[in-house]
Write a structure and sequence with these properties.
This protein is α/β, with parallel strands linked by helices. It is 38% helix and 13% strand. About 6% of the residues have low confidence.
Length: 347
């Protein structure tokens, strides 16, 4: 059996301090209360609270943790290096540009050209590595050793959990809820949210069938390697849950539910049809837990975190079209197993 080492988790006091450091740098993203019937949710009860974190700088919650990583002590002249073909890489590039820090981002060659263009547009040095996320991660570690640049991890560093904790702190100030539902990749987002609430509010994680990393870890009692694929693999596809996120989830997360890719596309459509909110698949995954009935919340006040919106609506024209609503999945958006096993920039 694998020997577990308990990582240090951010305390509420630590998250408060992190919020103070981030105050001049990040957006306090809004919440909106929605009638469940507007999203065609059965058994409409209390208004559903949506935390619109996709309005954060760089398009996702990752900007919070990336800033904290860059602010954690004096940086070497070589700057920082990270691996990600998803939201994390964009967040690092954005924060580094704002702080005047050199940044190198290693990406797998499965990364979408649009994301490569955005990384370069933010001034990052971009290195494309043949293979998957693990190959880019190994290359980024080698770069750090060779140049002296500070190595940054997409989810398994304390700053990433503290950053996510500041999101939860904001949410608690904005809305009184009984349960918070968040998407899960490597565990940074759910770990930080769980650390802030500490069991005072139920926290539920949502994964897709092709990226069930945390569900597999909790079932095994420790992080395990999993194969990842499917629609949300570029944002939720960590092959192994982070030690810190897993420790927080095992202690404070109510449950992790798994939904199919088709349900995520359906959730994207509902958000667009009812509210004109365009989210990436990872951003809509949490809502899919409610639309599918995988999570039943009768009588509870529920908040859903929409964690990212780095999506090109033109690439999924049958999702983001006038009058679109819930229905059959969009074949152009991708199906289970048709995306490369990337695992980059996981939540």
């Amino acid at each position: 059996m694998e020997q577990l080492v308990s990582p240090a988790l951010p305390s509420r006091a630590g998250i408060e301090r992190a919020a103070g450091r981030l105050a001049p740098l990040v957006r306090r993203t809004p919440v909106v209360a929605v009638d469940p019937g507007d999203l065609s949710l059965a058994g409409a009860g209390a208004p559903l609270v949506l935390k619109l974190e996709m309005l954060q700088h760089a398009g996702s919650f990752k900007a919070r943790g990336a800033y904290l990583q860059l602010l954690a002590g004096e940086l070497p002249s070589a700057g920082v290096v990270a691996a990600s073909g998803g939201n994390y890489g964009v967040a690092v590039a954005y924060a580094a540009r704002r702080l005047g820090v050199p940044a190198a981002v290693f990406v797998p060659d499965t990364t979408a050209p649009a994301k490569l263009d955005r990384l370069r547009g933010l001034g990052a040095e971009v290195a494309v590595v043949p293979g998957l996320y693990d190959d880019a991660l190994a290359a980024s570690r080698a770069h750090a050793e060779a140049t002296g640049a500070r190595f940054l991890h997409a989810y398994d560093q304390p700053e990433m959990l503290a950053g996510a904790g500041t999101l939860a702190r904001e949410l608690e100030q904005q809305a009184g809820v009984d349960r918070v539902v968040v998407a899960v990749g490597g565990g940074g987002l759910i770990g930080g949210v769980a650390c802030w609430f500490g069991g005072r509010v139920a926290v539920t994680g949502v994964e897709t069938e092709g990226c069930a990393t945390m569900a597999s870890a909790l079932a095994a009692g420790h992080p395990v390697e999993v194969e990842v694929s499917g629609l949300a693999a570029d944002a939720l596809g960590a092959r192994r849950a982070g030690a810190a996120g897993f420790a927080a989830a095992r202690r404070w997360v109510d449950r992790v539910v798994v939904v199919p890719d088709d349900a995520v596309v359906d959730a994207q459509r509902r958000l667009w049809s009812a509210l004109r909110i365009a989210t990436e698949p990872a951003g809509a995954a949490a809502l899919a837990a409610l639309t599918t009935g995988a999570l039943r919340v009768a009588g509870e006040r529920v908040a859903v975190v929409l964690c990212g919106a780095n999506v090109d609506p033109a690439a999924s024209p049958t999702v983001f079209v006038a009058g679109s609503g819930a229905g059959a999945p969009d074949p152009a958006a991708g199906t289970r197993g048709d995306r490369a096993r990337r695992g980059s920039g996981a939540a």
